[in-house]
């Protein structure tokens, strides 16, 4: 695997840290900028919205740019808005930086997926995607807790400075390592790629990815109150449980990276029902602390193994849209990341308790199985030969 793919993973790690780190910083931001905690919480939802809108928009706008230039522009904008966010005293400006930063993040991830899978070759799209998605899971394991520690020690602004600092060496490495576009390279045809992305089979795969990711973030978002109010853990245990989920996520992405290029269907056929069974078991046994801890690890692994394999499947099924396929995969991930917490929060708000997001996660995975996994698994899939485009 070319070293530049791991450099792209480092940049995604910084961006993933920015996306999730506010979970531990919202109260401090609210107090410092004199807004309510719910108002400060909109910093997270606006980031997700910016990712959903930004991925296809930036992918299309940057279609004629050399990929190295596009990556550098997106990452430079991302660094700049974090510097502005670190020094501003205005909540409105901070909110604007979250939107711009999310759009830049979405553009980087879309172009980064296209670049990584192109450099890895036609038989290693899954391994390349796993490296980039691994940056997101490492952000959950290491970046988010470190951001919380920095916030506790030196204030929430220090976490913003840290994200900017980690991104700078990644930008320099991209400048040196991503090969320039050779002269005479054909410009991608946006209309042809968009037509390729309208194929029904690809749309179903994108829907499955959104549903599975929605289930993941439905529970992950409310994991702290779940384990403290239902499982009986003290607040001091919350970082350990979050780390367990993150470690499981990294393990799942690693498994997907090894198998999704050659045998994606066995991962989905076995992993999908196991994921559903895990959410149901978790919902039924959440009050048993040791079982809850084990299932946090297991569900993190299964969620990201299945989710990352679906994203790999998207990239193969979008083989005729190499420049825009990554943007649609990015949208699917972030639609799930936005809808899942909303549904989990609605269940809690309806008085169903902190265990209810687990039932919602199970429902979303059951819907995914009903919509596509079971019928797809019954037929022979040409992803067994990943060098060939998958027909739709």
Automatic annotation (TrEMBL):
What's this protein's name? MFS transporter, DHA1 family, chloramphenicol resistance protein
Name the PROSITE patterns for this protein: MFS
Q: Write the signal peptide boundaries.
A: none
The compartments listed are:
Cell membrane
CDD domains listed in its UniProt record: MFS_NepI_like (cd17324)
**Any stretches that span the bilayer, and where are they?**
38-63, 70-96, 102-121, 128-153, 202-224, 236-255, 267-288, 294-316, 328-352, 358-377
Q: Where is the Major facilitator superfamily (MFS) profile domain?
A: 4-380
Classification via SUPFAM superfamilies: MFS general substrate transporter
Q: Cite the Pfam families for this sequence.
A: MFS_1
Membrane topology category:
Multi-pass membrane protein
Q: Which UniProt keywords apply?
A: Cell membrane, Membrane, Transmembrane, Transmembrane helix
What organism is this sequence from?
Micromonospora carbonacea
């Amino acid at each position: 695997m070319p070293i530049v793919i791991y450099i792209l993973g480092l940049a995604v790690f910084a961006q993933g840290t920015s996306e999730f780190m506010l979970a531990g910083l919202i109260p401090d931001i609210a107090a410092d900028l004199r807004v309510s905690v719910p108002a400060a919480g909109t910093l997270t939802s606006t980031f997700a919205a910016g990712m959903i809108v930004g991925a296809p928009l930036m992918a299309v706008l940057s279609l004629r740019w050399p990929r190295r230039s596009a990556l550098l522009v997106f990452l430079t904008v991302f660094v700049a808005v974090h510097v502005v966010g670190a020094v501003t005293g205005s909540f409105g400006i901070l909110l604007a930086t979250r939107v711009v930063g999310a759009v830049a993040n979405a553009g980087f991830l879309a172009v980064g997926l296209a670049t990584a899978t192109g450099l890895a070759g036609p038989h290693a799209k899954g391994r390349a995607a796993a490296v980039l998605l691994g940056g997101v899971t490492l952000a959950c394991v290491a970046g988010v807790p470190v951001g919380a520690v920095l916030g506790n020690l030196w204030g929430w602004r220090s976490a913003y400075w840290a994200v900017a600092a980690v991104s700078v060496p990644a930008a320099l490495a991209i400048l040196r390592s991503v090969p320039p576009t050779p002269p005479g390279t054909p410009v991608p045809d946006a209309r042809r790629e968009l037509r390729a992305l309208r194929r029904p089979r690809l749309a179903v795969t994108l829907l499955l990815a959104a549903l599975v990711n929605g289930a993941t973030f439905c529970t992950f978002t409310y994991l702290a109150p779940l384990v403290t109010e239902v499982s009986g853990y003290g607040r001091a245990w919350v970082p350990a449980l979050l780390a367990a989920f993150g470690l499981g996520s990294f393990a799942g992405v690693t498994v997907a990276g090894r198998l999704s290029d050659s045998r994606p269907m066995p991962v989905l056929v076995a992993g999908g029902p196991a994921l559903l069974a895990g959410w149901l078991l978790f919902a039924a046994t959440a009050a048993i602390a040791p079982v809850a801890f084990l299932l946090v690890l297991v569900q993190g692994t299964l969620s990201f193994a299945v989710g990352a394999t679906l994203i790999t499947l998207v990239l193969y099924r979008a083989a005729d849209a190499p420049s825009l396929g990554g943007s649609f995969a990015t949208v699917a991930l972030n639609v799930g990341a936005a809808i899942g917490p909303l549904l989990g929060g609605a269940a809690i708000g309806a008085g169903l308790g902190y265990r209810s997001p687990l039932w919602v996660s199970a429902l979303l995975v059951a819907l995914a199985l009903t919509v596509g996994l079971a019928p797809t698994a019954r037929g022979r899939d040409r992803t067994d030969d990943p060098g060939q485009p998958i027909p739709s």
